[in-house]
Write a structure and sequence with these properties.
76% of the residues lie in helices and 0% in strands. The protein is mostly helical and 190 residues long. It has a single domain, classed as Tetracycline Repressor, domain 2. Helix 1 packs across helix 2, helix 2 packs across helix 3 and helix 5 packs antiparallel against helix 9. It comes from Methylobacterium adhaesivum.
């Protein structure tokens, strides 16, 4: 059985990824978890505190996933494909990326939350730059790819596909976009 804080984070993440930061209240979260709002305030005094905890937990899960990709996938394109599959769950669950959903509401967020999502995306872009640079070095990524701009392109493509395919073609459409992205990065592709 999960503890209350863990359950609050789980349910709040689903609410934010489905409705956005402004689209839910502590009353909504209390109803889903089956506790009083005061109990939520005990764990997360402010909505900003809750958002920061959500981003931290999300970031920690992604850190583990990125480490696993580096350990298991061989070559730049294979690692990009594995990274892209992390987004696929969002399409299948009809949920956006937590940090992208928050970024959409950038102007409504406290500075601390904006800084946390910026760090999240900066970390991913840096990780992807390394994957692409390594792939250029070992020949698993098409020659001429510029790691910095291409890392941003990868994130933008996957975030955009996650957003679009939730309303268009679902998982099949997302897989098609991911396959095309990987083909363009492959030494055998475009």
């Amino acid at each position: 059985m999960r503890d209350t804080r863990t359950e609050l984070l789980l349910q709040a993440e689903i609410l934010v990824r489905g409705r956005g930061y402004s689209g839910f209240s502590y009353a909504d979260l209390a109803a889903v978890v089956g506790i009083r709002k005061a109990s939520i305030h005990h764990h997360f005094p402010t909505k900003a505190d809750l958002a920061l905890a959500l981003v931290a937990a999300y970031d920690e899960r992604y850190d583990a996933a990125l480490a696993s990709i580096l350990a298991q996938a061989k070559g730049g394109v294979a690692r990009i494909a594995a990274y892209g599959r992390l987004y696929l769950g969002g399409v299948e669950d009809d949920l956006g990326c937590l940090c992208a959903v928050l970024a959409v509401e950038r102007d409504a967020l406290p500075d601390s939350v904006r800084a946390a999502i910026t760090r999240f995306f900066d970390k991913h872009i840096t990780w992807l730059e390394g994957v692409l640079a390594d792939g250029l070095g070992d020949g698993s990524v098409r020659a001429g790819v510029s790691p910095g701009p291409t890392a941003r392109l990868v994130v933008a493509t996957l975030e955009g596909a996650l957003l679009l395919e939730r309303v268009l073609a679902g998982a099949a459409g997302f897989r098609g976009t991911l396959d095309t992205l990987c083909e363009t990065l492959s030494p055998r592709g475009a």
